[in-house]
Amino acid sequence: xxxxxxxxxxxxxxxxxxxxxxxxxxxxxxxxxxxxxxxxxxxxxxxxxxxxxxxxxxxxxxxxxxxxxxxxxxxxxxxxxxxxxx
Length: 86
Hints:
By secondary structure, this protein is an all-beta fold.
């Protein structure tokens, strides 16, 4: 378990290690989902398009997250064979 002070993990970086991100793709559109469940990197309309969300590079560059208001929900991931749903 990583220790966090405020929004910054010990070690000084506000960004999680790349291994903590989930990669979602349908072979045309791809997204990197952070440990919080937010889409932090996504290029549209294809992988070589401009980024729509880029919070994994700059916290002010935008992200997308759909979650309950004022509730912390534990996150977990698992792979379902032949499916983009986690």
